[in-house]
Specification:
Blueprint lengths: L3 E5 L9 H9 L5 E5 H4 L7 H10 L2 E7 L7 H10 L17 E7 L17 H4 L1 H9 L3 E2 L3 E3 L7 H16 L2
Parallel strand pairs: 1-2, 1-3, 3-4, 4-5, 4-6
Helix pairs in contact: 1-7
The structure holds flavin mononucleotide.
The site of flavin mononucleotide (FMN) has 16 residues, from helix 1.
Amino acid sequence: MKKTLILFAHPALEKSRMNRALLEGVSGLNGVTINDLYEKYPDYHIDIEREKALMKEHSHIVWQHPLYWYSTPALMKEWFDRVLQYGWAYGKNGKALAGKIVKSVITTGGSKEAYQSNGHNNYTMETFLRPLEQTARLCGMTYEEPMIFYGALHKDETELSAALERYRNWLLND
Ligand SMILES: Cc1cc2nc3c(=O)[nH]c(=O)nc-3n(C[C@H](O)[C@H](O)[C@H](O)COP(=O)(O)O)c2cc1C
């Protein structure tokens, strides 16, 4: 059975609209574990063994976060730096994560049009996400097509519901 671990990073959840709605909407789903990194590690001291054990227990991993400076919030980067260790996640004998599926679920302030070669941000999200894609690949994981929610600050209730539906469907079905 598909078991999904959502690694969630938002440093100001109390101010969040979209990520909070998405997270609340998928919490309690069968086979889904939420790992809220800023709640668990407000001091950035990540329990590496706990994180490794959680990763081992799940077949699918979601990296869910708002886009911050074309990348992840800082604690998620810290998570990569500390948890994905040589000899465990990659390198000689580093096969612990091989075969798992990873998917980014990301909200952006910018519109879809802004993420084009002729747009405000000059590059597509696919380009900005190359480091995450290659991180997954180096660890032997498959980086699935990301779920990007553009223009998160301007979504109305109908759009929020549709976004949540897409997310829930992926968690429950694919
Ligand atoms: C520190 C910071 C950096 C941000 N950087 C970007 C960015 O690079 N590109 C972008 O489209 N939006 C950027 N934003 C906007 C956020 O992505 C947006 O506020 C968020 O996705 C909304 O989701 P939320 O309601 O869950 O907070 C940034 C916001 C903050 C606070």
